[in-house]
Amino acid sequence: MAQFENIFRSSGNPLPARPPFNHILMGGIGGVVAIAVLALMDANIEAALLLGSFGASCVLIFGFPEAPFSQPRNIVAGHVLSSFVGLVFLTMFGPEWWSLALAAGLAIALMMATRTVHPPAGSNPVIIFLAQPAWDFLLFPTLTGAVVLVIVAWVFLKLSKRSAYPAYWW
């Protein structure tokens, strides 16, 4: 029984501190604004701008704008790189479980190697294998949507004075 207790034992660290209420509020509002902009643009320009992983990107961008994962370089390059890998593997090997697994692993490794890690982008190969889009998926929604997210974040965070965003551009 003691061996099972050791398996589930945590390090004993306390929970992180709760962010200030205004950060929580602005994080939620930032997510609303960013997804609303993408959704409205998506509906009005007849080009796909929504990607499931963009919701998770908003968590990082508006909840933790100072984090390296939230910087424009990581958001744009992470999404584009991961989608590119997903499209390459889908095209070369088809929608096989092992192809998806290799694409996801390679996307992670490449983001780490290029210092463009953006955790939500790690789901892009999975999204690509589920949807099986054409190569234009790389431009719409991946690149264009990621750039719009960064622009919305930059404007919103400047106006809200929540953060000196970004810490770096590229």
TrEMBL record:
Pfam name, any one: TM_HPP
Transmembrane regions listed in the UniProt entry: 20-40, 47-64, 76-93, 100-117, 137-157
Listed InterPro entries: HPP, TM_HPP
Keywords, in A-Z order: Membrane, Transmembrane, Transmembrane helix
Keyword Repressor: no
Domain HPP transmembrane region residue range list: 17-166
PANTHER family: TRANSMEMBRANE PROTEIN DDB_G0269096-RELATED
Protein name per its UniProtKB record: HPP family protein
The organism of origin for this protein: Pseudovibrio brasiliensis
